[in-house]
Specification:
The structure is a single chain. It is built from 14 helices and twelve strands. The chain is of the alpha/beta class. The chain has a six-stranded mixed beta sheet, with helices on both faces. Helix 7 links the parallel strand 6 and strand 7. It is flat, with a radius of gyration of 23 Å. Mean pLDDT is about 85; it is low at about 25-35.
Length: about 375
């Protein structure tokens, strides 16, 4: 699953990307220093895996991962090809969700592409460009569906849906905030609309703003905007996060304590991104490996087994399941079995986040 990091030039996108992946994307105080998207894969912080590793002392530990893409800065007119608009739009089409970085701090040493700091204007600049791009996509779809309607009446439902979406986009309402029935959702999947992608807003603040982040005026503005979309807002100081990412665990912990923070903003972002995509993890644990496996919410046991190997799904018999919490309370799998906390589940079992599973199969 891919998350695209977007924003106007010089808002902290590449610095955030560096912090997340430690991949060293070039950072500079000028627009478009990131021309080709940088891609980095990062582990999802998961203390369950850490604790299972202590219990089993495995040869290998594998956490779930999220892929982040640092996309070139967008400017007004991108939908018409301004700046690196066409590249921006093609790169953002390939991601599953969006993290939009919004600058909420003053710094005379870091130029703003529009001359002054205004988070709502910046958000709307990007969102409007995505809306314009979607309107262009829909106009092409509408023209094609109207032609096809003469031969097949099924295209009427697509035409009705396009008109419904266009009406809302023209009012500045993104697709992700609209409600659709099952048939409409099926048609929508094939449209690849940019404003349909789920979004998280990062309010990039200064070090001085950290202690009062939630009450900062610019952060409040971003939150009010995001509420209309039921979107998450994470205030974080990208500069501090970059410093934290270069520290070992002990130094990182001490720095977080000094800043009065429970966890880094990046850890929060990575976890939120994972859940934004409707993803959960089931776990497998033993001496060879402790591992988190990524599945969509609502996945049944055989399909989850298929994530490990197609043969396990094909020959699925049952799943031995215990919740992470129950195993931790018991202290060992032997104790959990003695207390009857390991369940036998069949083909219709819907997996839950944190299930520890052993699949039984025969091929």
């Amino acid at each position: 699953m891919k998350i695209g990091i977007v924003g106007l030039p010089n808002v902290g996108k590449s610095t955030l990307f560096n912090s997340i992946t430690k991949a060293g994307a070039e950072c500079a105080n000028y627009p478009f220093c990131t021309i080709e998207p940088n891609v980095g894969v990062v582990a999802v912080p998961d203390e369950r895996i850490d604790n299972l590793a202590k219990m089993y002392n495995p040869q290998k530990v594998t956490k779930a991962v999220v892929e982040f893409v640092d996309i070139a800065g967008l400017v007004k007119g991108a939908s018409k090809g301004e700046g690196l608009g066409n590249k921006f739009l093609s790169h953002i089409r390939e991601v599953d969700a969006i993290v939009q970085v919004v600058r909420c701090f003053e710094d005379p040493n870091v130029v703003h592409v529009d001359g002054n700091i205004n988070p709502l204007r910046d958000i709307e600049t990007i969102n409007l460009e995505l809306i314009f791009a979607d309107l262009e996509t829909l106009d092409k779809r509408l023209e094609k569906a109207t032609k096809n309607l003469k031969a097949d009446k099924k295209y009427q439902s697509e035409i009705d849906l396009i008109k419904k979406i266009k009406e809302n986009l023209n009012k500045g309402i993104p697709v992700r905030t609209l409600e659709f029935n099952e048939d409409e959702q099926e048609i929508l999947k094939d449209m690849f609309l940019l404003t349909a992608k789920p979004i998280i807003y990062i309010a990039n603040i200064s070090e001085e703003q950290i202690s009062n982040a939630e009450n900062e005026e610019m952060v409040k503005q971003v939150k009010e905007y995001a509420e209309k979309e039921n979107a998450e807002v994470i205030p974080l100081c990208v500069k501090i996060e970059e410093e934290l990412s270069g520290l070992d665990e002990q130094d990182k912990k001490e720095m977080l304590e000094a800043l009065g923070l429970d966890e880094s903003g990046l850890d929060k972002l990575i976890k939120k991104s994972y859940s934004l995509l409707g993803l959960i993890s089931f776990l497998t644990a033993g001496e060879p490996e402790v591992r988190a496996w990524t599945i969509k919410k609502g996945t049944k046991a055989p399909q989850a087994a298929g994530k490990i190997h197609s043969d396990i799904e094909r020959g699925f018999i049952k799943a031995e399941v215990i919740s992470y919490e129950d195993l931790m309370k018991c202290g060992s799998m032997v104790s959990a079995k003695e207390k009857g906390l390991v369940r036998q589940e069949g083909k219709d079992y819907i997996m839950k986040d944190g299930d520890i599973v052993l699949f039984k199969f025969n091929v």
